[in-house]
Amino acid sequence: MEDARPKIDMKSKTLDIHELPKIQEICEQIIREAGELLREGFRSDIRIETKSNANDWVTQYDKQCELLLVERLTAAFPTHGIVGEEGSNLRPESDLQWYIDPIDGTTNFAHGLAPFCISMALYQQTTPLIGMIYEPIGEELFFARNGAGAYVTNRLVTNKRLQVSSETNLGRSLLITGFPYDRRDATNNNYREITLMLDHAQGVRRIGSAALDLCYVAAGRAEAYWEQFLNSWDIAAGILIAAEAGATLSMLDGSPMFIQERVSLLAANPTIHSQVLAHFQTLS
Ligand code: 2AM
Ligand code: CA
């Protein structure tokens, strides 16, 4: 039976594509301003509150940063919708939606540990148009436009095209993963998957920001990233950046990617993607 959930459609877009470079430019101004705010807040007096459970934290900077993003986006694009981690849900009827995460990697940020980032993505229904991710401590900006490739700008390079790694040997591959906040109570807590991959990969990292994890696969710094139960705003920008850099993306069971409330995904260079998937399939 045909799956009714909307698949991520990497190709079709009806917005005039000539508008996208200008939108991207404005997005970059906004994300860099938000980065300034997070740099000021980093290792300052941080107030922590909990959300869904005791491990799920939010700080005053998550909220301030989301407010800044919403104000700036609304001023620049008054008709666009906005879905944000800290509760924003504006103009849900709009065809064009921004998915924003004011701090991806809040646990790192709250502990005074980098990296963490701001993630912004513009979608036309299920089609990603622009993805932008800014890591303010290392001052590294990742971005992609649908069909136009993925790029990075940092202290060493400007607008460098991203390409996933060409490694084909899992034993020489570096993998990245993460764990759900409710891992102590959840039956599906990723412990079996990480044990399996520790046995087969060169190494496994837990960096703490899904958005950056996807960028690191896009940049070929790691071969694969998998994680369960992510939110749309954690991955909306990163999946376009990874896809434009040549990554294969799927749900963790190998089925096609789609954005829903909770996403479990695998992003990897194409060869390593099938090898990791084959190992995961031995678990079920
Ligand atoms: P956050 O920092 O915005 O909360 C950590 O594994 C990564 O997964 C982070 O990007 C974190 O985003 C994200 N994440 C989203 N939902 C999560 C959940 N329920 N449990 C753990 N991490 C979650
Ligand atoms: Ca967040």
Descriptive overview:
The structure is a single chain. With 284 residues, this protein is an alpha+beta fold. The protein has 2 domains: 17-161, 2-Layer Sandwich (Fructose-1,6-Bisphosphatase, Chain A, domain 1), CATH 3.30.540; 170-281, D-Maltodextrin-Binding Protein, domain 2 (3-Layer(aba) Sandwich), CATH 3.40.190. The protein has 7 helices and 15 strands. It has helices spanning 20-41, 60-76, 106-110, 191-200, 210-218, 232-244, 270-281, and strands spanning 48-50, 57-59, 81-84, 89-90, 96-104, 117-124, 127-135, 140-145, 149-153, 160-161, 174-177, 203-205, 224-230, 248-251, 263-268. The strands form 3 sheets. The protein has an 8-stranded mixed β-sheet, sandwiched between helices. The protein has a 5-stranded mixed β-sheet with strand order 12-11-13-15-14, with helices on both faces. Strand 7 and strand 8 form a beta hairpin. Helix 1 (20-41) runs antiparallel to helix 2 (60-76) and helix 5 (210-218) runs parallel beside helix 6 (232-244). The longest helix has 22 residues, at 20-41. The relative contact order is 0.15. It binds adenosine-2'-monophosphate (2AM) and calcium ion (CA). Calcium ion (CA) binds next to strand 5.
